[in-house]
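Handout, section B. The chain below has 744 residues.
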Amino acid sequence: MSHPLYVAFIWHQHQPLYKSPGSGVSLSPSQQYRLPWVRLHGTKDYLDLVLLLERYPKLHQTVNLVPSLILQLEDYIAGTAFDPYLTASLTPDEQLTYQQREFIIQHFFDANHHTLIDPHPRYAELYQQRQEKGQAWCLANWELSDYGDLLAWHNLAWIDPLFWDDPEIAAWLKQGRNFTLSDRQRIYSKQREILSQIIPQHRKMQEAGQLEVTTTPYTHPILPLLADTNSGRVAVPNMTLPKLRFEWAEDIPRHLRKAWDFYKDRFGQIPRGLWPSEQSVSPQILPDIINQGFKWICSDEAVLGWTLKHLFHRDGAGNVQQPELLYRPYRLQTAEGDLSIVFRDHRLSDLIGFTYSAMPAKKAAADLVGHLQAIAKMQRDSQSEQPWLVTIALDGENCWEFYPQDGKPFLEALYQSLSDEPRLKLVTVSEFLEEFPATATIPGGQLHSGSWVDGSFTTWIGDPAKNRAWDYLTEARKMLASHPEATEENNPEAWEALYAAEGSDWFWWFGAGHSSNQDAIFDRLFREHLFGIYKALNEPVPPYLKQPVENHQAQGNHTPQGFIHPVIDGRGDEQDWDKAGRIEIGGARGTMHNSSVIQRLWYGVDHLNFYLRLDFKSGAAPGQDLPAELNLLWFYPEKTMVNSPVPLADVPDAAPLNYLFHHLLEVNLLTQSIQFREAGDNHQWYPRFSRAQVALNSCLELAVPWADLQVPPDYPLRLILVLADEGRFSNYLPENALIPIEVP
């Protein structure tokens, strides 16, 4: 029997608890919620995703809604949630304090400006004033109408384009400027109106059979780390662990039971699927999941690879080899019973999350459908009796900020193509498992302890700041345990504060790896939740909780923190490069020192290109104080291939300049022209075609397609930059090092 290729999309909707404990007791209303993201993502991302899907009834999908997100949505719907952004928005212009004006100028452009600010002329005008003239100038020169318009646009821009045909919203978009307090109050009412439809719409579509709604442990904790922080050493044996070992497995059934009961109350049925926070799993957490009644969970292909001791390779098109191992459910066998598990295709999920936003919508949709069609052909060629299930699972909110029109054109093109393709069938996970129960088995004890990030827990533990936060949490948990009289029934404040502090997001932002302009607020919120435990127990708060967990000053050098998709125009847009790796050149020790014309080097990747940016000293000009030729040379460590030396005169015989390289991209900084070459026999270099983009304006920006380098996914390579003048070596960077790059 020939099966279609079954595809399960799972969209994960989550926000941490921005609500400070004790709100409404000791805090003013404007301090209840520290950040506005539940309200703003609620108007932009949660409702439109399922409303779009409803237009394509043949397509079934799964949406995961985290309890802590739903709780906060309900506060906003009830009108009892206020965050500083909302409070400012509802303040009469003439009553805005100096501090509020500073806050507005600093934070009311917290959005991707390409997609959320630039499309709206008045919003873009205000943004350009702040960027070009600075915050101090705005504070000194803006009139009340400027603040009024910015307050309105910050809220309007986050309303999804799907709702722009609403007469009131259409009128505001057309109005553009001169917004009044009354306008802003109506915009807030419209936000609450949209938020109020989110849960009913999910419930309706689940009851109709097009949607499956799943849940997550109550406040999105990393369950394996609650069971034992030593589980961090399963994937990283030499991990530096916190000084105190956190072992509170008894908290796991609490989080699961609260999520289960919460779900039953909102959706009128019991949940079948569980999205473990950050797709983090371990053998220790399985019994509690099974005992609570969940039927299936999901995780990442990296976890499956570690579990099977199999490294998933991909072909040149990026499609997984030995697909029959990944595209099937498994049955985890334990003494408490069995539990089904599906593993997502990491690359297909990442393409939606990080890459397709930079492509034209129809081309991106065609690319994804093309990958699925290629997998369907592999399934037919395999003549497998068992149907295949491709799981695509990812964050369902943050990626759309980078798509034009919040991803609407992409999703429409994708859903239409999937509706028209008879060999592809979109299903919920439970639908598939009911018709085709898992036959492949994995002993529960064999399951790898890891997450979607490299199959490890290094994103949440192992860094000095992350470990310090775990120690603080451990001390607070021990304090709660020393009060057996403080039960959930008679002291819910203490337990709610604990659950909030156990959430994963605080540890995500601590230490190296991730950063935002709200790091200090996340730090403060984490400590406020711990404060709440001591306060509810009437215990003194430890002095260390009154100090930040870490210093939040801007970092110097750092490695890439995520995929980037910069516009190559030579302007160095700050948002385009905010997740890029950075190396400080000017002011560094050694030969370049602070006399260097090149001040800073940025680098990053997505699934399409490698990106490079160089920042110069003000007024620097190629051919004068800056050599006119820039050479990018790629070195492939421990790979057997033909290589050649740097083809310049007067190159010093010192590492890494005396290495042999395989690819060379020459950039003429005067003409912005490029020549691409590949190493050949006898230390020769041969011309090759390149689609690299280069732009030089206030800085140099460069995009080199992976297709030029013809390297497979997960391939390691290293890069050095060599400056030359008329074919003679001038200098190189970074000093005494190569830039490490991993092909996605």
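Note. The two ends are 36 Å apart (CA to CA). Compare this with the example in section A.
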